[in-house]
Amino acid sequence: MFTGLIEDVGRVAALAPMGAGARLMVFTGLPLEDIRLGDSIAVNGVCLTVVESGEGLFSFDVSPETMERTTFRTLRPGAAVNLERALRIGDRLGGHLVSGHVDCIAVIRERRESSGNILFSFRLPGRFARYCIEKGSVAIDGISLTINSVSADGFSVNIIPHTGNRTTLSSRKPDDEVNIETDVIGKYVERLLGGEHRDGGKGVSLELLAKSGFL
C-alpha cells in the first residue's frame, strides 16, 4: 500500500521489451541503501517490484497486463516519473490509501492556471467515473489528490504550487494521458451492496440486512 505522497521524481533510463512485457530502469534520488530486492515502489502510481538496483537506478519487470492497462507503453528514456516507497506500519497517512493497481487511463481535457495553482480537468471511461465523487480522493500518476467536481465522464482537480513543483503534474498539458486509481473503498462498497458473487449469490443488500434483523 501507498499514500499518494510522492517522494522523488525519477527519470526513465530505459524501457526494454521482454516479450509482451518490459524491463523498466529508472534513475532515482531515493536512498538505494534503504531499498532491497523485492521491495515495492509505486512508479507513476503503478506498484512494481524492485528486481535490481545500484549506481543511482533501480529496475523492474513490467507485466504485459501493466503495459496494456497503463501509460507505460508511451514511456521514453528521459521521461519523468513519480516515485513512492511502500507505506510502513506506523507511518503517517498524509494522503489516502493507494494500492498501486491502476484502474484506467484518463486524458487531460483542460489545463488552466490561477493564482499559482493549476486546474486540470480529466476525461475517463464512464464505468470508472462513477467511483469519483466531489471532495473524494483519487490517485493521478500516483499522486493523492482531492476531486473538485465531477461529471458523467470525468472530474477536475486543483494543484497547489507545492504539489506541482514536487511531481510531474507541472509539465502536463491537454491530451496527455495519466494513470488513474480511484478510491478503493467505493469499489468494495459497490461489490458488497450490488455485485454478483462467483457462486451466483447476491452481495449485501437492504433486503438481506432486513431479513437478518439489522434493519
Percent range for β-strand residues: 35-45%
Q: H/E order of the elements?
A: EEEEEHEEEHEEEHEHH
| Termini gap | 35 Å
CATH topology of the largest domain: Elongation Factor Tu (Ef-tu), domain 3
Strand tally: 12
- Give the class-level CATH name of the largest domain: Mainly Beta
Shape: globular
Number of domains: 2
Helix content: 10-25%
What Rg do the Cα atoms give? 19 Å
Instruction: Report the mean per-residue pLDDT as an integer.
Output: 91
Q: Which CATH-level-2 architecture of the largest domain?
A: Beta Barrel
What would you say this structure looks like, in words?
The model has no long low-confidence stretch (mean pLDDT 91). The chain has a six-stranded antiparallel barrel. A six-stranded antiparallel β-barrel has the order 7-8-11-10-9-12. Strand 7 and strand 8 form a beta hairpin. It has two domains: 78 residues, Elongation Factor Tu (Ef-tu), domain 3 (Beta Barrel), CATH 2.40.30.20; 79 residues, Elongation Factor Tu (Ef-tu), domain 3. The protein is 15% helix and 40% strand. It has five helices and twelve strands. By secondary structure, the chain is α+β, with helices and mostly antiparallel strands.
